[in-house]
Amino acid sequence: MSHEFDPSLLQKTLAAALERGGVYADVFVEHRISQSIRLQDSKMHEASVGVTSGAGVRVVEGDRQGYAYTDDLSEAALLDAACVASLIARNGARVDAADLRVVKVEPRYRVDERASDHGLGDLSAYVAFLQRVDATGRSYDKRIDTVNGAMIGEVQHVQIATSEGKLVSDTRPMIVLSAQIVARGQVRGFASYADGGRTSLGFYEKKTPESIAIEAARIAVMNAEAREAPAGEMPVVVGAGSGGVLLHEAVGHGLEGDFNREGTSLYSGRVGERVASELVTIFDDGDIDGERGSLSVDDEGTPGQHKILIERGVLRGYMLDSLNGRLMGGSSTGSGRRQNFRFLPIPRMCNTYMPPGDSTLDEIIGSVERGVYAKSFAGGQVDISRGDFVFMISEGYLIEHGKITAPIRGATLIGNGPAIMEKVVAVGSDARLANGQYTCGKNGQMVPVGVGMPTVKISSLTVGGSALQ
Amino acid sequence: MSNDAALEIAERGLRSALAAGASQAEATCTIARRFSVRARDVEIDKLEQSTGRGLSLRVFVGEKGKLRRAALATTDLTGDGIELIAKRVVEAAHHVGPDPFAGLPDVGGSLDAGDLQIEADDVASRSNDEKIQDALTLEREARAFDEHIDNSNGSYVADSQVTLGFANSSGARASYRSTNASLVSSPVGRDGDAKRTASYGTAARSWAGCELPAKVARRASSRIMAMFGAAPIPTQSLPVIFERDVASAVLSDIFAAVNAANVAIQNSYLADKVGEKVGSDLVTIVDDGRLQRGMGTSPFDSEGVPTRRTVVFAGGVLKTHLFDTYYARKLGAKSTGNAAGGGIGPNNFYLEPGSIGLEELIAQTKRGLLVLSIIGFATECATGTYSRGVSGVLIENGELAKAVDGVTIASNFLTGILPGIDAVASDLRFDSGITAPSFRVAEMTISGE
Questions:
Q1: What chain A residue is nearest to B54 in terms of C-alpha separation?
Q2: Tens digits of per-residue pLDDT, A338-390?
Q3: Number of domains chain A contains
C-alpha cells in the first residue's frame, strides 16, 4: 500500500498557503483504511469497511489559525484549500516555505512482518477470534444471556509537510477486540471489555480472545448480583490499570497546552508548584511500543515523547502541540493530535500513567474500615477550569472492615483534581497499563489513548450511588 | 452545489456494488460545505471552511432470506476509488453469516422533502464577515456581562449546507438539501481563586431561527455568575429539577433504552416493558421525523424509509421501541424510520412540554436541587442505574438559595426517574435531535459531603 504524495505538490501547496502572510503552514495528508466485523447471536452479524482519505492545510499567524480540508487530492483542490486557509493571515507574505527534506522516524508500533496490509490482517482471522469469544462467553456461566463482540482493525498512513521543511510519514496500525456480555441474576448485568493496541493480530496469541470473553463474562455475572452503590464521602481504592482514567481526568486534561496558554485551566501558570501529594508522579508517554495511545510521530510530525507532568507532587510541565509550544516559549512535546484530516490538531494525551509505589493491594484494602474498591472504569469527564472531574465505575465492590465484600452497581465518583491528588495516601507496587480500549473526546475530536496506574488509595472521595446510609 | 452531484455519486456507488456482485445494495452520498469561526477576546483565532464529501454503501450478498451484509463509508471518491472499495466491501460481506432479517426495506413511500423546511436561504447568503462579527459580539457581550467574566474558551459561529443523495437497488432515488446554523458562547469567570466556566448555545436550520448573539452570550455568563461561591452540600435525598439543556441529556439515556438494537441484546431496562406504565402521567415522549424546521427532521431515514411521528410513551405507558428495518423484522415490528448511519438514531425525540415556566416550577419546589450542568455519561442501560456529577443551585422555600457543585445525583430510571417525573415546564426548544423542557423528579439521592 503506497499513498506517498509527490513532495513537489506539497511544496507548492505550502508556498500558496503562505502567500498572504503567516509564520507557519503545514499540510496533513491521510489515507486510512479500516475493517470490522461484529458478532451477535453467535453469528457474524455485519462486516464494515471504511476509507478516510484527504488532506488539510493550515496557516498560522500569531495565535490565529486558518484551516481547510479536501477529500479531492488533485493539485487544484489542494491549492484551493491553501488559499482558503490563508484567509486568516493579514500581515502580508513574510516567510517562505523551506525546501522539504524527509525526516525518518523510528516506528513505535509492534507489527508482525508476516501480516498483510501493515497488520490489518484478513477478516477470516477476525471471524475466528469472535467465534472463540462467543464460545467462551456462552459457556462461562449459566446466567450468561447474550454475547456480542466486535473486532476492528485499521491502518492510518499520514504524511506531514511543514513550512519549516520537514516531511514526515508514519503508518499507524490499530486493532481492538471487544466483548459485550449480558448476564441474568437478580438484575441484568452488563459488561464490556476490550483489548488491543497499535500492533498486529499476533497480539491475541498472548492476550487470547478467550481471556477477553472471560473478563467480560466475569464482570457481567458480578454486575447481575450487584447491589446499589453507597452515597457519600468515603475512602476509595482505585484499581490498578484502568484506574489511570483518574489521572487522565483529574490531572491530564488540565495540563494540555491550549488551556494553559489561554489561562482557562486551574493549572495555568503553576509549573514548579506543588499540586499533588508527594506520592504522586505522572507521565504522559507517546513512546511505548504498541500501546493504544502511542505515536511514532504526532499529527504535526513531532516524535512521540516521554513527558514528566508531575514529579513527586510538583507540576513539571504541560503537553504542547507546535502552536502552543511556540507561543509559550517552548517547543512541541509531540502532543499535537487530530481525529482525522478534517480537524485542526490540538494538544492531547497519549498514554498517561503513574509509576509504582511500595504498598501491596492487601495492605491498601486492609487499611480501609468502610469504603469502595473501584476496580475498573468505563470512562470519565472533567471541567478543566474548576477542576471538578468524574469517573464511572464499571466494576466495583464495598470494602468492609478491611475486606472486599459485596459487588456494587455502576456509580459516578466525583472530586476536584488538586484536592483529590493531595488525598493520595498509598500507592501500590502493581503499576500497569490498562487494557487498550479507551478513547478520549475533546472539542468534538476522538482519539485513542492509553491509561495506567498502580492501585491507589484516596483517603476521601464522593461516591455517587443511590443507597443512603 | 446541486443535488445532482450527490445523487450521481450515490448512483455510481450503487452501480459499483451491484457490479461487484451484491444482490441488493443501497448508497448514500453527502456533500457538506462547512464554515466555522472561533473568537477569543477581540480577535478571530480560528477560521475553517471546507467542503467534504462522503459515500456510504450497504451491500447484501446471497439469496433473499439468507442475505449477508456489509457496510462501507469512504471519502475516497476519485479515480477508481469507489469501484475498488466496493469490491472489498462485497468480499467482506461473504464473511458474515446468512441472516433471515437482513435486506433492504420491503416497501417504499414518498421520499419527498415536501414542506419540512430544513433548508434555509439565509445560511447560503450570510457573509463570512457577518458571521465573524457575530463571533466577536458573543465574546464582547459575554465579558461585558460582569467584571468577573475575564476569559473564555472561545465563541463559535458555525454553519453548514448539506446535500444528500440516495439510491438503492429497489429503484428508489431521492435527494434533499438541509442547512444548520449555530452560535455557542463559553466564557470563563474568576470566582475568588477559582475559575468557573459555562456554555450556552443556539442551533437551528436557519440563522433567523437562532437566538441573537447578545442573548446567547448573556445566558452563558449568567450561568457562570449563578455558580459563584458553589460548594458541596451534605448527602441527602431531594427533589431534582433538570434545567432544559441537562434535561435533554436525560432524554438521551431514555432514547438508548428504547433503541431496538439495545433491546435485541437485552441491554435495556425497557426491553420487556412495552404496554406497561413505567412513567408518571406526565411522561409523553415523541419521536417526530417530520417536525417542520426540526434539527432531526428529514424526509427519509438512512435506509430510505419515510420518516414519521411515533409516540414512544403516552401518559407514562411505553408504546413502542424505535426500529430500523433489520431490528423491526427481528423483533416482529415495523420500522419507525429511525435507521441512522448503520444503527438506530433519533429523529426529533422529545418530552412533551407542560404549561408552566421554569421560574414557576422553581417557586413550586419547597426544597430541591436545580441542576444546571452535568458531567459524566455512563448510565447502565441494562438496569437503568443512573449516576452523574452535577452542579446547580439549591432551592429553599421556592427560591434559589445557594450554588452547589462537587456533588452527584443518583437514581434508577425504572424505579425512580420515570415514575418520579412530577412536573414538566413549558420551555422546550428544538435545538437538537434529542430535546426536553425542564422537568422535576420527585426524589433523587444527592451524594456530597
A1: A71
A2: 999 999 999 999 999 999 999 999 999 999 999 999 999 999 999 999 999 99
A3: 3
CATH of the domain at A214: 3.30.2290.10
Sign of CA dihedral B158, B429, B378, B347: negative
Instruction: Kindly list the residues from chain A whose CB atom is less than 8 angstroms away from the CB atom of residue B47.
Output: 64-67, 87-88
Residues of chain B positioned with their CB less than 8 A from the CB of A468: 235-237, 445
What single DSSP character describes residue B126? S
- Domain match, A18 and A50 both: yes
What pLDDT shows up at residue A107?
A: 87
Distance of CA B89 to the CA centre of its chain: 29
Q: Which DSSP symbol is given to B412?
A: E
**Cα A296 to Cα A305: distance, rounded to the nearest angstrom:** 9
The verdict on residue A340 lying in a domain is yes
- Which CATH superfamily hosts domain B3-225? PmbA/TldD superfamily (3.30.2290.10)
pLDDT score recorded for residue B242: 98
User: Residue A1 domain-assigned?
Assistant: no
How many interchain CB pairs under 8 A, A with B? Answer: 273
pLDDT by residue (tens digit) across A125-164?
Answer: 999 999 999 999 999 999 999 999 999 999 999 999 999 9
Quick: pLDDT tens for B216-237. Answer: 999 999 999 999 999 999 999 9
Partners of B78 on chain A (C-beta within 8 Å) are 71-74
Pair A52, A147 in one domain: no
Residue in B46, B51, B447 closest to A462 by CB? B447
pLDDT at A115: 64
Q: Are the Cβ atoms of B235 and A344 closer than 8 angstroms?
A: no
The residue segments making up the domain with residue A51 are 7-34+43-102
According to DSSP, the β-strands at B421-424 and B385-396 are unpaired
Contact A231 B446 (CB under 8 A): yes
**B287-312 pLDDT, tens per residue?**
999 999 999 999 999 999 999 999 99
> In the prediction, which pLDDT does A1 show?
40
Tell whether A137 and A50 lie within a shared domain.
no
| B255-272 confidence digits (pLDDT tens) | 999 999 999 998 999 999
Residues 6+ apart with CB under 8 A from A377: A239, A242, A243, A245, A246, A391, A392, A393, A394
What is the ipTM score, two decimals?
Answer: 0.95
**Percent of chain A with pLDDT strictly greater than 70:** 98
Q: Are residues A20 and A59 in the same domain?
A: yes
Both A13 and A138 in one domain: the answer is no
- Identify the closest residue of chain B to A42 by CA–CA distance: B97
User: Distance (Å) from the C-alpha of residue B159 to the closest C-alpha of chain A?
Assistant: 15
Based on the fold, state whether residues A323 and A460 are members of the same structural domain: yes
Task: Quote the minimal CA–CA distance from A240 to chain B in Å.
Answer: 20
Domain boundaries, chain B: 3-225, 230-449
- Residue A300: pLDDT band (50, 70, 90) is very high
Rounded to 5°, angle at Cα B423 from B417 and B428: 95
Interface test with B, best of A414, A416, A463 (most B CBs within 10 A): A414
In a domain, residue A111? The reply is no
Residues A322 and A435 in one domain: yes
**Best of B387, B390, B449 to disrupt the A interface by mutation (most A CBs within 10 Å)?**
B387
Q: Nearest-CA residue of chain B relative to A377? A: B378
Q: Are residues A273 and A415 in the same domain?
A: yes
Span B391-408, mean pLDDT? 97
